[in-house]
Amino acid sequence: MSATRRWSTALAATALIGGALGAAPAAAEPAAAPCDPSGTAYRHVVLFTPGTPEWAATREISRKCGKTDSYYREIGVAVATSADPTFESRFTLERAYSAEKAAKALAATSRLVAPTAEVSARGVTEDLSPRSWDMRQIKADEANKINVGSRRVVVGVLDSGVDADHPDLKAAVDPALSAGCTTGHPDQSKPAWMPSNSSHGTHVAGTIAAAKDGQGITGVAPGVRLASVKVVNDEGMIYPESAVCGFMWSGAKGFQVTNSSWFMDPWMFWCKDKPGEKVGHEAVRRAISYSVRNGSLNVAAVGNSAIDLANTTRDPAKPHPVNENCDEAPAEFAGVVGVSATGYAKKLSGYSSYGKGVVDVTAPGGDGAQPPPAGEGTGCPLSTLPGGRYGTACGTSMASPHAAGVAALLASKYRGAPPQALAWLLGHQADELPCPAGDARCTGPAKDNAFFGKGLVNALKAVS
User: Tell me: the pLDDT tens digits for 197-214?
Assistant: First the structure.
């Protein structure tokens, strides 16, 4: 799907799935079997017609043996818990689905990148920016001399939590705008949105907005604010209910930019023509559309499976047939800017996925096979880790926040610009990177190809 079509689709009216969702049952419907609370309690997403009153949704869920944890009336999506093994069948898999239950059956495990602790001492006072080749690659160091970004701009870091006590992040993270979403319901208590056992979100956050203070590292847009929106649970999994909560929170709070360095579990691809999966697909599609309508530019990593997302027939995460009706969530969804990764040499990183019409821009994610010169760090970008530490990691997870940081600079310069305009500027100002000679995987012209999309993001152009 082309980027233009993806953005126009994001603003279309919310589609219904499986007919008139939430419609009253027929008068002749037989009495339902008694509830069976003996099973394992799982969270589900449940679809209703957008605008269905909360009382009506809650009543139907209760009658079908569930408990409503959260309800988003604007998009007609509920998060419900039930221990009844027949809960999904009472709604049918056209309306209710538990990704948590599917993950347990598949024995799915986390696939988040684990940064390495290159600098482990707390309270580092050394300026580590000489090791930040990634910032120089997109001219962030030059951009920071002109504009560090505006405090009115907020970037939602939808991830595993951000350490708000890190010296390089404490001025950026806004607790009043942060929330934990792992249950599908926003929780603003600090423990709910701080990292527990993953450094992933803190690494991502530092790339976007680590302080420009002459110590540690400096982010792409050190003057903007961050909101920690924790969507990754303690098992490292991201389920539809967490993603829905994260995008709805971002839209409701008016975040100008969000970053999602993950794909939704337990699959990599969610198919809108398969029972159950179509429920998770539709729920997240609606939430992303809501965030776009409320002014959020959503940026996401395209993944580390080195596959062509535009022509995929298999799911590298789990044995799972894939066809043209399946999308990687959220990178392939309408209203999302997909980001691939480059290494020091500005070549596509060996692990990076790609795809014509899926990749909108590229950014440095690092590659051990493209090492920088001595003194400029390792092949993987350096960023913040919990506990005042710093470490390196490679991945499209690291590329995406570079693009989100540039988008934040654009939002700082063009106050009130809608997400569609920011997405256009991000691609229009990117430095074109042509397909490498002789690589048949890469198709398209220098300014719009399968590997790099519109090109390498450029922070200096964003502020000039």
Answer: 999 999 999 999 999 999
Is 367 a catalytic site residue? no
Catalytic residue among 134, 159, 315, 431: 159
- Catalytic position from the list 44, 200, 203, 281: 200
| Global model pTM greater than 0.85 | yes
**Is 187 noted as a catalytic residue in this protein?**
no
Q: Look at the block and give the residue holding tokens 């490292």.
A: 236
The fold of 10-25+34-106 is Alpha-Beta Plaits (3.30.70)
Contacts of 26 (CB under 8 A, 6+ apart): none
Q: Which residue has the tokens 């009253």?
A: 24
200 is catalytic: yes
Tens-digit pLDDT profile for residues 440-463: 999 999 999 999 999 999 999 999
Which class is domain 110-463? Answer: alpha beta
**C-alpha 102: how far from its chain's center?**
21
Which one is catalytic: 291, 397, 400, 412? 397
Give residue 327's identity as a one-letter amino acid code. D
pLDDT in tens, 135-177: 999 999 999 999 999 999 999 999 999 999 999 999 999 999 9
d(CA 358, CA 462): 22
